[in-house]
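Researcher: Predict the fold of hydroxyacylglutathione hydrolase.
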Amino acid sequence: MWIDAASERASDRTVACRLFFSACNRSSWTARRWQRAQRWIAGIDADSTQVKLGMLASIGEGFLGRIATSSLASRFLSYLRSTSGMGVTELVMSDVLEVHRVPCLVDNYAWLLHEPKAGLTAIVDPSEVQPVVEALRKTGYNLDYIINTHHHWDHTGGNIALKDKYGCRVVGPDADRSRIPRIDISLKDGETWKFGELDMVTFDTPGHTMGHMSVYFPEAAAVFTGDTLFAMGCGRLFEGTAQQMWASLSRLSLLPPETKVFCGHEYTQANARFAISVDSENPKLIERKKVVDEMRSKGLATVPCTIAEERDTNPFLRAPDAAVRAKTGVPSGAPDAEAFAAVRRAKDSF
Ligand SMILES: [Zn+2]
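Model: Structure tokens for hydroxyacylglutathione hydrolase follow.
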């Protein structure tokens, strides 16, 4: 792979990113995917930790599973986290559902869930093994389930090693059962699964990937949105269409306003910079951006957020708004999905 990349005499950035992307998803690599990836690459910094991470991932067979199991890689990643203000495992919610934030890789969050009545524990989207093992050691819990929102390596990289270590069962979207490593329980849209005594409702939320699901715990007022809804952002359209993503986001936005949103990445500050560029007169956005900038300057996490905050300040949910349409050049009579697509395109080239 190294020789192949070097022979193209491409720039360092292209080489690094090619390695990164082929490491991420070699099995479904296509020319079209690579073209799409290149457009994305144009917007990222060659020195960014994502690219360094990608190069690391390319060592050996270049499969991200190795990141999850290699102690050298784990040490490197924990160094990156310590220098990027990602923090350590932290209890962020307790009550009917306990939720611990588990920083992974460079800007990923896995979420450790504990249902105290039944004494069951799950991890949502474990990209790595070591931070999850550490979180379990700290809390004293055993791991009963892995819950994956979608197939990407930075949400499933820990599946195999964690399952081998704890004998836990893997829960994921039925629509993507063939791409979720070692899946045991596959859930369909609208299906309710019992996590101990709590209901977990599954929503198919395609757009970022075709088989993406979000999971909602009504009694805990918590939703885990993976790479569909971010704080002030949304996932890139790697596999689905703008119409699908708009439908997915619209559905999530209808959850009760107080619902806490637990997404898969700490992208909030960069998302806020873009949001203000298309929604500059929104006072709630201006205020939230200030708060987020201050939190990030102290290395604090900005996730979870709430559905109410997202309705008020997320430029993708606000795409149909007249001010945002005016900024993105979408006529007032055009469908909302079209307005969303314009915001997504603007963000892709921001
Ligand atoms: Zn993803």
